């Protein structure tokens, strides 16, 4: 059932927002790439034009030259030695200097950039996001909180907050987890990332202090429905939720949602039965 879904079944496809879109999209999206409408954000206009020119197999692709933050305005972007450490927040050097990757955060200058709150991006007015991925170098909470109306309608949210402050004023995992809980999301993915300290063990492989994590949050429609907070659920939204459970590899949660959706008349009995085997959730080509 899930492998045969078309954009028409999904009300035009799965809508994915990629905030901080440097690098290639994650390979996990490959099995459903022809169902995905992709919008990426990068504050560099030239980079957006370059990315738009690259061949992609998504249903549609667009890159917007905005830096997202908590509110509209002008901010300074800290340009660091590594482009992947650029941030609207200043690196916390006295902390970072203790670790082997401190040089990546060395500030080489600042540039003024125009920033927008997610909710105020005109191009998103008609884009009902199903997936929101945030890789913002310390601004996850600020972006999510001020894009709450968009995030609350999504099913799948990916964040990458630190467990400690790498930047001054950085939002940490505990803050992000609190907001996601308020919005009815559950944690389904937690990839922990650590870095060794400077010194004779700087290149040692093994256990180090956990510095940040890559997190996946899925909306708990079962609990929200019981609380009367699920909002208006359509068949297309239900199918997209099930498809995204397959992408994340969580058929147990997907089937629980399917039972809930069947109770609301969004799935047929035959469709529910077809989802009772693990193979039904395998999207591999």
TrEMBL record:
Occurrences of domain Methyltransferase FkbM (ranges): 38-186
InterPro entries xrefs: FkbM_Methyltransferase, FkbM_mtfrase, SAM-dependent_MTases_sf
Keywords, ordered alphabetically: Methyltransferase, Transferase
GO molecular function annotations of the record: methyltransferase activity
GO biological process: methylation
Pfam families: Methyltransf_21
UniProt protein name: FkbM family methyltransferase
Source organism per UniProt: Pseudodesulfovibrio karagichevae
Lineage per the UniProt record: Bacteria, Pseudomonadati, Thermodesulfobacteriota, Desulfovibrionia, Desulfovibrionales
